[in-house]
## 1
Amino acid sequence: MKNLILIGMPGTGKSAVGKTLAQRLGYTFLDVDDVINERTGKTLKELLMEMGVDDFVVLEGKVGESLNLESTVIATGGSMVLSHNAMEHLLENGVGIWLETPLREIEGRMPQDLWDRGIAAPRDMTIREIYREREPLYAKYADMIVASREGEDATAHQVEQVMRTVGLSLKS
């Protein structure tokens, strides 16, 4: 069975929606940030401080490339789209779903120091600049775009409805 690959900005609810969607579909749920934490024994913030953004993005991409799963809802890190090879690998057996959230909502959810949240971007970049940089990549890798709604269950339900409407089957 095909995977569902959730992409989008930090703060869009990929993890929360992913867990709910996996439960609704009887799928497994995997958060790539958790995999990175388990493999390194470090938080995203610690890794960013030690490695810097560029090396972190390489590490995140390698983790993405290493995943070979079926029937799994995968919540990617917001910067996974910066790794072309990882995204191509994930989409070989997956449907890319961009959880699109208005920038003003994302800004309201983010801390002052984005590195506290483990966001892979240069320290002087604003959330608006990160959004502008990544938006074309989210669009490139998305098989479908779903407006992130208030509440995980509502967004998960909307993902299911859009999939049915466009005839996306989860069967390989």
Note: The two ends are 5 Å apart (CA to CA).
## 2
Amino acid sequence: MNVTWEGSGRDGTGWEGLSPYAGRCRLPGWDCTAGLVVGEDAALMIDAGSSVREGARLRTRAHGLLGGGRVTHLALTHPHFD
């Protein structure tokens, strides 16, 4: 999947590129961070917020960033409310 991180934070997706294949999104409220790692045929989201609603919002943001591609894997690093 091709991702253009430049400007993605300004267009409403909230993603900040850290490398050509990885980015992060800072979430309001608890100021937690979600990550996105993109490969050729897969995308890994690292943490999905602190609620189902926040997770759905992140998935939608990632979908837009991935040009219609979808998150194929999810890693949850710890129980959240942060």
Note: The chain is about 15% helix and 30% strand.
## 3
Amino acid sequence: FGHCGSALPSYEASVQLMRNGGPLPSHLFISSQVAPHEGPYGRFLELDDQELAVEIELLIHKMGGKALPDIVELNTGIMRSDLEANRSYIQSCPETLPFPITAIGWNRDKEVNPSLLGGWKEYGQASFKVLDGDHHDFLQAPMELLSTIAEAMRRYI
């Protein structure tokens, strides 16, 4: 499972395992991320550190926490590194995976509209699911997300 920027390393790790004969995942779950050949994508890529800090503070407050300056600063640095990795990950030609992909969108996602996930069909057997929520609702592990993953994984039990 990879959400937003972490979907790219999830995909790339799958590719590297496939290329090197490693154990393959049974299924790849992608959430709120355009296909690699359609990126990099997203407004966060254009934000400076101060703007990123504001976004982090908003998320911390949304989740019921208190935005302590040291935590905001630490997470701004982490987010900046993630964004630079996202920006530099260029995939010109999709590499097909030999296992299913489920691309998950969120109906109130203002960062990555679910309609932008269609490019994942070029990476193998892809299915698409739109769940109720916004860009960060995956953090609360809503039952609809857990059910989507559990339902797809039942065939491997």
Note: The longest strand covers residues 101-106.
